[in-house]
Design a protein that fits this description.
396 residues; alpha+beta; Butyryl-Coa Dehydrogenase, subunit A, domain 1; Butyryl-CoA Dehydrogenase, subunit A, domain 2; Butyryl-CoA Dehydrogenase, subunit A, domain 3; 3 domains; 4-stranded mixed sheet; 4-stranded antiparallel sheet; 12 helices; globular; flavoprotein; Pimeloyl-CoA dehydrogenase small subunit; AcylCo_DH/oxidase_C
């Protein structure tokens, strides 16, 4: 399989890399993270000017019809720069609207950079199971009334629109009976508690008390939101894998530089064979994770393309490949992130955990990514549960 990027993708990555090096330095990022807002409107405007907010959106809504491989390139650079703006949250939310195919005006605002999104999916009891939904949506005249609470909504307080999953039928953990809603963040009854997370990103606990929305707020079909929810979650996991690779790349490079400059007994510690072996192990983990993340991006791009040209029942095999590839990638990237991060901190010594050094910030971000949209254990179990994993299933 050809994993070489196109010239246009490399140019976009280079433009983003140059902006980060010039205007989004480590010290500039620390200042943004420490600010009351926790994000920079100037940085967000630059991302929009570079066309990143429009990249994955349909051309009809002002986008560039970019696929998962295009987004892989972008997310990798954002990971290297530890960018804290709500780009991932917004592009994750945009995938719901794109698949719902009924909110063109909202997608146009997202493409222009005028609207930020957040996905309110997880709940206190659900952990990584996005089917476990206690929030209820009940009919209210021509619209709906939502009641419940969502936990750790990435950039919820910075968003203008929330993508909310609610139960409209069935038992709490059923796939059937889930409905997705586009809820204005300033709607009456929406209460948020904004906090700064371990990695510097912002998140909010969101309480919805008798929040009313119209029938046009439904994304997709009533009671049948699981298909969109699962596909969008896989898309989001693919984006996170790419971001983690960028962070691991940068952390590996910083650790290598540190071993070349830090001296003990009159020589750089990088000359000690034991430390060289540890760096070699880190490199192996990094490259294996890169291969799996790229494969997931290719599978996601193929599924996106097929969904736009084929009937749903004709995409069954492609969807199955997407599930397997994303689960495997999230598991392998999560393993690599943990190993590379821990080794980098140890090789930096006491300096590795200080706020003044980028190493600790990369490790915190990698740790958070591993827990977002399913940790290693969750995706390993998901991969094993896919049809055909066991020999007897294949034989049957």
């Amino acid at each position: 399989m050809d994993f070489n990027f196109k010239e246009e993708q490399l140019q976009l990555a280079d433009a983003l890399k140059r902006w980060i090096a010039r205007d989004y330095t480590f010290e500039a990022r620390r200042a943004i993270v420490g600010s009351p807002a926790g994000v920079s409107e100037a940085a967000w405007a630059t991302l929009a000017e570079l066309g990143l907010t429009a990249l994955p959106l349909p051309e009809a809504q002002g986008g560039f019809d970019g696929d998962a491989v295009d987004m892989f390139v972008v997310m990798q650079e954002l990971g290297r720069g530890l960018v804290v703006e709500p780009y991932f949250a917004t592009m994750f939310g945009a995938e719901f609207l794109r698949r719902g195919r009924a909110h063109e005006a909202l997608l146009e605002r997202v493409a222009a950079g005028d609207l930020k999104l957040a996905c309110a999916l997880g709940e206190r009891q659900s952990r990584h199971d996005l089917r476990d939904i206690a929030m209820r949506a009940t009919p209210d005249g021509a619209g709906w009334r939502l009641n419940g609470e969502k936990k750790v909504v990435l950039h919820g307080a910075q968003a203008g629109l929330l993508i909310v999953s609610a139960r409209t039928a069935g038992a709490q953990r059923d796939e059937d009976g889930i409905t997705l809603f586009a809820v204005p963040a300033d709607a009456a009854g929406v209460v948020m508690r904004d906090v700064r997370m371990l990695d510097g990103q912002r998140a909010a606990d969101v309480l919805l008390r008798d929040v009313t929305v119209g029938a046009d707020a439904v994304i997709g079909t009533v009671d049948e939101g699981w298909t969109i929810l699962e596909a969008a979650a896989d898309h989001g996991a693919g984006l996170l894998c790419a971001e983690a690779l960028g962070a691991m790349d940068a952390l590996f490079g910083a650790t290598l530089d540190y071993l070349k400059t830090r001296q003990q007994f009159g020589v750089p510690i990088g000359k000690f064979q034991a430390l060289q072996h540890r760096m070699a192990d880190m490199y192996v983990h990094l490259e294996q994770a890169r291969s799996m993340a790229l494969l997931a991006a290719v599978r996601l791009a193929a599924e996106q393309k097929a969904a736009g040209h084929q009937a749903e029942d004709a995409c069954t095999g492609i969807v199955a490949e997407r599930r397997r590839a994303v689960a495997a990638a999230k598991y392998r990237v999560g393993q690599a992130a943990r190993f590379v991060g821990q080794q980098a901190i140890q090789l930096h010594g006491g300096m590795g955990v200080t706020d003044e050094l980028p190493a600790s910030h990369y490790f915190k971000r990698l740790s958070t990514i591993e827990l977002t949209l399913g940790d290693c254990d969750h995706h390993l179990a998901r991969f094993i549960a896919q049809p055909g994993f066991y020999d007897d299933e294949e034989a049957a």
